[in-house]
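Raw record, unedited: Cytochrome P450 CYP367A2
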Amino acid sequence: MWFEALMVIAAAVAIGWLYWRWTHRRMLELAAKVPGPPALPILGNALIFMVNPGEILNKVEALCQTYGDYFKFWLGPDLNICVKNPTDIRTLLASNKVNQKGPLYELLVPFIGYGILTGGPTWRNQRKTAKPSYNKKSVEHFTPIFNEEAEQLARFLSHKDPSVSFDVFKDVVKCTTQSVNQTLMGLSKEDSQNLHRMEEMVARTRDMYQLIFERMTKWWLQIPLIYWLVGKKKKQLYFQKLVDDFSSDIVRRRRKALEVSTPDEECMGVADRYILQGDLNENEIKRDTFTLFTTSQEAAAKIASGVLMFLAHLPDWQEKVYNEMIEVVGPSGPVTSEQLKLLHNLDMVFKETLRYFPIAALIQRTVEEEITINEGKITLPAGTSLVIPLHHLHRDPRHWEQPDRVKPERFLPENVKKRDPNAFVPFSLGPMDCLGRVYATALIKTIIVWVLRYARLEPADSLDNIKLHVAISVSCADGYNVRARPRKNGRINGFT
């Protein structure tokens, strides 16, 4: 009886496997031309990635070293082709054949739904609606709020005990949160400070993305029963409720405000645009509003904290940035977008931070139509998941000398000319590039100017000991630790 049942199951599995191979024969034919590690039946190469999330980047690096700029790996039946050649990366990200997010982004959907970050059928319209809030004119209108919040942060940091180190991210994220709330979310200062569960949301965001990344990288957590048995489903439900409560309060407050008046087009926040558009249901409005909140305030805080930490460790660069800042912007007064464009030393440190801590360590896209790369040698079949290893591209020794060192001089004009321009992709490329690059750049640089006006930063440990933490984006595992000494009239406790 049992033997017969097993034989039936085995026969069904074999038939299913043969049917799958027949229906995917074109994919298998093209995949055979791409190098990669041997794959097991059913699991593919999933066992390679059975490591802690912090080790994922090392595994990808090992595959890059073994197979070069092009290699494949299977996650179950899903074919992934990794491309690290800069020219092909630009071609692929700019192509209309590769403009849907990959299957791993589906694991974000329970938290934030389909939309700008996760793709889906409506992402183009949602992006089009939100885009005006991120353009240069809107950012100009947001500048006074950036200045106000950055100055408040700078004053607070300047009163820290200079003998005690601290994780500057915990303070910076409060500044970026208030800035995003009062600009992109369209909230008043009072509303921004009294959002339901805001402090909890800000404190637990990293844990939420860690949970999502764990499920992305541990195949067994994608089995619903196991996900529930190990308690991960319970955590997911907690985060879903937290996101819903927080975003519901933003949308509720904006609906109430819009009953009284409508903001000018040039300074309207994204929440207002989604509400007024009229094409989205309540859940879609809340989820896309939250997506743009978290991708703006948390990402900006990570990058700004990285810049501050690097300046603390590079005193020569800190002085260059400070002296140029005093010459261009002055020791006091609001910072303008035009002035920020003239801070070339700050821009080099900013770009080096983006290189070292990419906003996304890996990008995954779905190939919707066949596309040929590598000078015609490789054709990506439809249905393939394209993987772009940005972290590894930004640390490729062919393009970056001593890639694990922090060296802002890489972005001196004479050094940039020597490098393939496609080897640096900080905000992605093409129709799904980072919507907030202008917004984030202005906010981050304004924060840096104000902090350096009030404080001189000093290192808390060594740059050689930085441990990376990967949970969608790359950050410091042990925090962005610095010390701050108050600066008065260009002098530090009596010393120039």
